[in-house]
Amino acid sequence: GTFVTKVTATDADDPVYGNSAKLVYSILEGQPYFSIEPHTAIIKTALPNMDREAKEEYFVVIQAKDMGGHMGGLSGTTTVTITLTDVNDNPPKFAQSLYHFSVMEDVALGEPIGRVKANDLDIGENAKSSYDIIEGDGMDIFEITTDAQTQDGIIRVRKPLDFETKKSYTLKVEAANIHIDPRFLSGGPFKDTATVKIVVEDADEPPVFSSPTYLLEVHENAALNSVLGQVTAHDPDVSSSPIRFSIDRHTDLERQFNINAEDGKITLATPLDRETSTWHNITIVATETRNHSQVSRVPVAIKVLDVNDNAPEFASEHEAFLCENGKPGQVIQIVSAVDKDDPKNGHYFLYSLLPEMVNNPNFTIKKNEDNTLSILAKHSGFSRQKQEVYLLPIVISDSGTPPMSSTSTLTIRVCGCSSEGIVQSCNVEAYVLPIGLSMGALIAILACIILLLVIVVLFVTLRRHKNEPLIIKDDEDVRENIIRYDDEGGGEEDTEAFDIATLQNPDGINGFLPRKDIKPDLQFMPRQGLAPVPNGVDVDEFINVRLHEADNDPTAPPYDSIQIYGYEGKGSAAGSLSSLESSTSDSDQNFDYLSEWGPRFKRLGELYSVGESDKET
Predict the structure, then answer these.
(1) ∠47-52-56 over CA atoms, to 5°?
(2) What is the chain's alpha carbon radius of gyration, rounded to the nearest angstrom?
(3) Number of C-alpha atoms within 13 angstroms, CB side, residue 535?
(4) Which three-class secondary structure state does DSSP give residue 176?
(5) Per-residue pLDDT tens for 557-614?
(6) Domain Cadherin, which positions (predicted)?
């Protein structure tokens, strides 16, 4: 009895014709699922709890009949398509109650290892489900997420697996609808569960060190080959392959350490010096002997401990200045010392004079609370004329075990000072300047002397250059080295500079071959001069006459530069093929021999034979 829809029909007849316009509706097809009110055309469901999953779409044929449905009335029909919409009235169901998966123990974290699927007969939002692990011994090892596209449950690894520790896991997985319709809660829980068993398979794993890092300490005076410490590693696989240890030499370029390949003991290979390097960081490599591709690395930090092997010394080279007018007990200089060693309790220095200088009549020393030393004068009246420089050896000792000491010498220079104690000069001026000149005056005098010497040298150099004669001596005259070449070469046409005998006719080597690129040796009589041309002569005739004379005069330039090679090679039956300077003409030659040269010259022979026959006729 649930309302579905309402249909309407119209009648074109006029209502005045009785009851012709009164329509009555009925269902011809679609029973017994739907019913219709005859006069209101309201369609309702005829059965309760219709199931979309069983049938989603219905076709209902409605008839409308006028005249109140009486006989003689007219009728019309229409088809109504009724589609059932989905509601969440079905829970998700796993396709199987037990799933089996296997995974290698070295699988990466987050890698999916399997999928489970809970099917829901509903569609759209009503079919969406969420997955969760509710029980099992691997709840903290695995996780399950929902694939938004396929609605599958994807099982992933959350923590590393270890075949040697645990070989299998059992999980209980639940799938539940996200959107639940309260009207159908009485239909039961909208969720389902399934059991998932995961088997871990063994994989060849690299060695595992007993510690992720190692820290070793060694004194800098440790003996060579002494053991500094040991690293250990094992093969976690069931086969338990033996392990070999080595040092990555990229981390120990100076090869200061060695390691025993069998037991992993690290030994010292070269002496250590804490003052040079306090820390050494190396990498130890562990390799399986049965599978060299399985390698592990671990960092090892080695701290070099200090020993008292350096003597203290002055922090810098000190030079003290003592005023001639100084007073007894006056502090001349305060010095400090440094030690390259680093004792745990800090530095404490002891200062003393050499045994033979303990009773020094001029100076004494005093230790200060800040570990420094003060140098004091015992008396006054120091004089540069008497002694300009004093050397005071001081012994500096530390408090280490064993104690180390060194002797440093302090230079004390006697200087002239003002009444306020400001140092003015430390040179022995009394001997150098008895007339009382100051150091500044002496420097000015020296500067003037040097300037005068420079001026004199420049003047002499200029005079010397001025007095030198301008005429160059014969042996220095570079013009005599110039070689003049007055003859002009023949260029590319000059063949006299090399042997061209191979291009000449051997039969005429001793003969004379005329050159056409030089003036002929033949002497011709000079041409008779033409009489002056009268005015009005034809210029064209004059030019032609001059041209004819030049063409027939071999002594007139330009000369013919054609090179003549009349020799065609020995053994040629044809002789010379050149027509230049030939002693015979075409009319004097017989070409019958061309027919004897073979098929290639047959046609040529016929042509010349025809020519000879034409001449005879």
Answers:
(1) 100
(2) 64
(3) 0
(4) strand
(5) 665 555 555 555 555 555 555 554 444 555 556 777 777 787 878 777 777 776 554 5
(6) 1-94, 95-209, 210-314, 314-436
pTM: 0.46
| C-alpha to C-alpha distance for 548 and 546, rounded to whole angstroms | 5
d(CA 417, CA 397): 34
Strand, helix or coil at 459? helix
Does an H or E element contain 606, and which? Answer: helix 602-616
Identify the H or E element spanning 82.
Answer: strand 75-83
Beta bridge partners of 377: 363
Mean pLDDT across the stretch 332-337? 88
For residue 550, the SS3 value is helix
Number of H helices, E strands in the chain: 4, 33
Three-class secondary structure of residue 493 per DSSP: helix
Instruction: Report whether 136 contacts 170 (CB < 8 A).
Output: yes
| Sequence-ordered alpha helix ranges (H) in 322-480 | 429-432, 439-467
CA distance 270 to 253: 12
**CA angle centred on 443, ends 439 and 447, rounded to 5°:** 170
User: What is the set of domains in the chain, with CATH numbers?
Assistant: 3-83 (2.60.40.60), 93-201 (2.60.40.60), 213-305 (2.60.40.60), 313-425 (2.60.40.60)
Of 50-54, 178-182, 283-287, 500-504, least confident by mean pLDDT is 500-504
Distance CA 129, CA 117 (A): 10
pLDDT in tens, 462-503: 888 766 555 555 555 555 555 555 555 555 555 555 454 544
What region, left, alpha or beta, does residue 157 occupy, with left being phi > 0 and alpha being psi -120 to 50 degrees?
beta
Residue 556 binned pLDDT confidence (cut-offs 50, 70, 90): low
Q: Which residue has the tokens 């392990």?
A: 243
Residue written as token pair 């003859």: 487
Task: Report strand pairing: 129-136 vs 168-177.
Answer: antiparallel
Residues 6 or more apart in contact with residue 538 via CB below 8 angstroms? none
**In which element (H, E) is residue 246 found?**
strand 243-247
